[in-house]
Amino acid sequence: MRFLLDGELVEIADVDPTATLLDHLRYTMRRTGTKEGCAEGDCGACTVLLGDLDGDTVAWRAVNACILFLPMLHGRALLTVESLAPADALNPLQACMAANGSSQCGFCTPGFVMSLYGRCVGACGHDLPVADVLAGNLCRCTGYGPILVAGDAVGPLERDDSATVTALRALADAPGASGQLGARRWFAPRSCAALADLLTEYPEARMVAGATDVGLWVTKELRTIDTLIFLGDIAELQGIEEGPEGVRLGAVVRYGNAHGAFARLHPDLGELTRRIGGLQVRNAGTVGGNIANGSPIGDGPPAFIALGAELTLRSRDDRRTMALEDYFLDYGKQDRRPWEFVESLWIPRPGPDATIHIAKLSRRFDSDISAVCGAFNLTVRNGTIAAARIALGGMAATPRRAPLCEAALVGQPFTLATMERAADALRIDYAPLSDVRGSASYRLDAAVNLLPRLWHREQGQVVSVLDLDIAHG
């Protein structure tokens, strides 16, 4: 495998398919500025920048090195905190943070620097608020104030990436990569046809797009995966097509890239996307991966289901399209054959009569997994609810709709009394479990209160779920 570090070509033979970039940087390359804080993509201490060729420029994105498998670097450029001051002269961002007292114990500082440097070079847009950029970086000394000030003080920084562009073009001309270490193997195909052929030959292979989930299988559960297929080089799976009827996204579109399209579909979907992990997670995690793994607590699927999304699966010889809710069969079981892969997701654009509310409830606002994710899509005409699509995550073995609640809404006037009657039906639709994110009773009460909140919000009233809990018992 080949990648660029500070513009220089790095070649590695005999690559362990699940070796992490973090371990390679620290133990092989001795770039110890990149820290291990959590090994699960949660704290940001290991933040680095990955660069992909984008026309005549390099598109940089901040990612977590701790759950990024080494073969995923193939054909890309890499910057670490050591890249910013090669001659031991601080760059403007580092100098500003030093002068501003933005470091206490210093352990997390390289990760903060890399996230902020990504903003300075346009990795997430210069206008993204600093607090949003740093939502995936944790400071255990609680020194956020000076860090936020320094982040706001430093504007765009210029980079001369011309040599990197030339080198990336040379790497892009190479065929898809592959490797083997002992009995374990990995592949990085460049086309859907090549992927379909690989799945036909290796139906047991684990497909990996962003590794924000599979990475934890390795770092936390110490699983061994024998055959991996990395999807990040397949351009056909990375497109976003927006039109008057809706949006089609390739399965490997990252949430960070999908945010704008989602926000244009509906502001609530944009806000939900902003709260899916930290920026580093959204810069790695993909829309298709969030669906394909079948997690009952993934934030995207409930919203997509409520909006009427359709999923397209592809194999070497066939394609099939289904309503997204039909893909989820049971806990850990999805309607995907071993030789199939998720190709795209279609989300219809909400009509003028749509009343939509999407809510993520979690123990902390940023970078947390939902206790409940609720999505409500009502078609209201002349004060009457003509249609309803409701889906919740964290409430069952899969993200799924609420048929009894939907039936209680359709044909009824759009009033608070209707919402409260439908909320009673919602209690029958789900039987949630208790875990560290919330008890079963909390989940059910919170989900039920989202219906009155939808009505109050449509009246121009801003209320919290706690307010509704008090008001409605």
CATH superfamily of the largest domain: Beta-grasp domain
Main sheet summary? 5 strands, mixed
Total of helices: 18
Overall tally of structural domains? 3
Helix/strand-derived category reads alpha+beta
- Radius of gyration equals 23 Å
CATH architecture of the largest domain: Roll
Helix content: 25-40%
Q: State which percent range the strand residues make up.
A: 15-25%
Which strand order do you get reading across the main beta sheet?
2-1-5-3-4
The coarse overall form would be globular
CATH domain topology of the largest domain: Ubiquitin-like (UB roll)
Total number of strands: 20
Report the end-to-end length measured between terminal Cα atoms.
Answer: 60 Å
Helices and strands in order:
Blueprint: E1 2-5, E2 8-11, H1 21-28, E3 47-54, E4 57-64, E5 77-79, H2 92-99, H3 109-120, H4 130-133, H5 144-153, H6 162-172, E6 177-181, E7 184-188, H7 192-201, E8 206-208, H8 214-219, E9 227-230, E10 240-242, E11 246-250, H9 255-265, H10 267-274, H11 279-282, H12 287-292, H13 300-306, E12 310-314, E13 319-323, H14 324-327, E14 328-330, E15 333-334, E16 341-348, E17 354-361, E18 372-381, E19 384-393, E20 400-401, H15 403-409, H16 416-429, H17 440-458, H18 465-471
Parallel strand pairs: 1-5, 7-9, 8-9
Antiparallel strand pairs: 1-2, 3-4, 3-5, 6-7, 10-11, 11-16, 12-13, 12-16, 14-15, 17-18, 18-19, 19-20
Helix pairs in contact: 9-10, 15-16, 16-17, 17-18
